[in-house]
Structure formats: C-alpha cells, structure tokens
Design a protein that fits this description.
14 helices
Length: 345
C-alpha cells in the first residue's frame, strides 16, 4: 500500500538584514537589486565568510511582496549543455518543432545565478555565462535548429585569487567587485556565532525576530527601483566619473557605464533626486577595484643614456649593430594585489 510522502519545502534562508558586518558587500548587492543592469557582483574572499548567505539574501530583495525569485547555483563541474540547455533533435525531426530541455540559465531567469569559485571554471564557459548575463537572452543552436529564451538574472560570482585569477577580460565583465576581509574583530566574531547558533536552533523564530528589519530593507530597495528612472544621468556626474576612470587608467568604457549606473542606484538608495558627488565616491571602489591599472612607481629606472660618439663609432664598425638604438623603458601597470588567503583543503 503506497503511503503519501510529505512535500519537500524550501529551506529557510538566513535573513540578509541579520548578517553581521560585510557592509560594503551588502551595499553592492542592494545596488544590484535596485538596477540589475549594473552587471552583477564579483566577491573576493576566503571560505567561511557567508558569501553564499549574502547572495541568497539578494534574491529576497529582487522579488515583489509574496514572491521570492529563484536562486540557482551553477555546479563547479557543469558542462556547456548543463548551462545553456539541450535540444532534442529527434523530436525536432519527427514532430517538426524543437523540444528544449532547459538548463541552468533558464532556471535562473528572473532571479539570481550564483557561481562559486568562478575562477576555476573554464574560460569559454565563463565567457558564455557573461555574454548571456549582459544580453538577457540565451540562444541554442544545434545542426541548423535554434531556440531562444529569456535569461535575465543577477550574476553573483565568488573567487579566492590564491586559487587562480580570472583573465582581465572576464574580470571586466563583472559590474562590481567587493573584497571581503577574512579576519573579523573578536566582538564581531562572537556576534556572528551567536546569531548562527540562534538560527540553527530555531530558523522560523530567528527569521520572525528579523522580519521587520528584512521587510524595511526590501521596501527600501523596491522604493529605490521605482525612483531610479526619475534620476537623470546628468553631465556633471558623468564628468566626475570619466575623469576618475581616466585617472585610474582603466581600459575601455565599461567602467564608466557601470560606475554611472551604480552612482544613480546609490542616489535612489539614499532617496535623492540627483546624483551627488557623494554617490560617485561611495561606489568608486566597487567599479574600479578590478579594472584599475596602477601608475608606474616613482622609482622606475630611467631610460639608458644615448651612447657617446666614441661608442657610436665603435658600434657602427660591426655590421650587425648598424642602426641599433639604446633600450627603452616601457611602463607597465602593477598586478592586482592578491590577498594571502589559505587554499581550500
């Protein structure tokens, strides 16, 4: 005799408002919830820093009242077919229409796609992922048969640079970049442990305790989204941002666009009607950290002096050195500073 099995319910998520510290990351996530066109967030930090907890909290901020958008995690060993989906060619030939099996991108539509250790994914997979995140559309083609569907999601990636860097071209595709410090103060550590134990003991009671603060956060994000389009992208703010990008030596123009969008989202977040200089400064590091090229240091060796007339006449005696020029120093930007975090066992 078959027995009815109880339906599986979604696990209770730790409220974003209850997370201790990580103020920069919480702000970056809220700005992305206000304007998803910013392009997602890349989080750098060691393990055990609540990166996935914070990312899950973002899904709650994106949704309308009574509706929580999907939160989808991309497995580390995922293939391209698992990511984009597959087309059943036999069904297409027999029935005359493509039968599509959705992948991770389809399931994440309207929500959050979380990629842990994004720097360990193959570069072609990361490139494909970022292309779809930017366009909002996933297109699959197999043997002349194609299918297209919406894939609008907020991309959240995490990485530990000690385990491998992302190529600069891929780093640039993430809108914002936040560094999490791996050494909280003792008082903060105690508070984190107390809240975690309270949540593990009774998740429903803990969420009820933080329901008002979480609702205030959600309401503030929703109000900012409604206010966003009324805030002009004025020439004054654009001048501040373009000058800042030029001073930082960033390549391309994506940083300017992301910075401008993030500054407008920050203005909406604080309830302003225009972008102020404080909004531009508040999000500058988020937009520039992974794109900045440091200027050459002051102790860069100078170019070698030109050879004396005696040396020149000697050099011209050798046929192979005819027309030789002294070596020139080429200024190169410094590498991104990589925090010294322990690797995963």
């Amino acid at each position: 005799m078959a027995r009815n099995r109880p339906e599986m319910s979604e696990p209770v998520q730790f409220p974003l408002a209850a997370v201790v510290g990580a103020d920069d990351l919480k702000l970056a996530l809220c700005l992305t919830a206000i304007d998803p066109k910013i392009g997602g967030v890349l989080i750098e930090g060691p393990r055990g820093m609540a990166k996935s907890t914070l990312a899950r909290g973002l899904a709650d901020l994106l949704g309308a009242p009574g509706h929580t958008p999907p939160f989808v995690t991309l497995p580390l060993g995922a293939t391209e077919e698992r990511l984009v989906g597959t087309l059943d060619l036999d069904a297409a030939l027999g029935q005359g229409k493509a039968q599509f099996s959705p992948g991770v991108l389809a399931h994440a539509d309207g929500g959050v796609l979380y990629v842990d250790e994004v720097n360990l994914l193959p570069d072609p997979l990361v490139d494909l992922l970022l292309d779809v995140a930017a366009s909002g559309t996933n297109r699959i083609e197999r043997d002349g048969i194609s299918h297209r569907h919406d894939a609008r999601f907020v991309l959240i990636g995490t990485m530990n640079p000690e385990e491998g860097e992302l190529r600069p071209q891929l780093l640039d595709r993430f809108g914002l970049n936040v560094l999490l410090e791996g050494l909280p103060a003792p008082e903060a550590r105690q508070q984190i442990i107390r809240r975690r134990l309270a949540f593990d003991s009774d998740p429903q009671a803990f969420c009820a305790q933080w329901a008002e603060a979480q609702e205030q956060l959600r309401t503030r994000c929703q109000a900012a989204r409604q206010r966003l389009d009324s805030i002009p992208l004025d020439d004054r703010a654009l001048a501040w941002i373009t000058e800042g990008c030029f001073s930082a030596g960033v390549d391309g123009l994506r940083a300017d666009l992301v910075w401008l969008r993030a500054a407008r989202a920050h203005a909406a977040w604080r309830g302003g009607e225009t972008i102020e200089e404080g909004d531009v400064r508040a999000v500058a590091e988020f937009a520039l950290r992974h794109r900045r090229r440091e200027a050459p240091s002051a102790n860069t060796p100078a170019a070698a002096p030109p050879p004396s007339s005696e040396d020149s006449s000697t050099a011209q005696g050798g046929e192979g050195d005819w027309g030789a020029l002294p070596p020139q120093t080429v200024a190169t930007g410094a590498r991104r500073e990589v925090p010294n975090w322990a690797k995963k066992p």
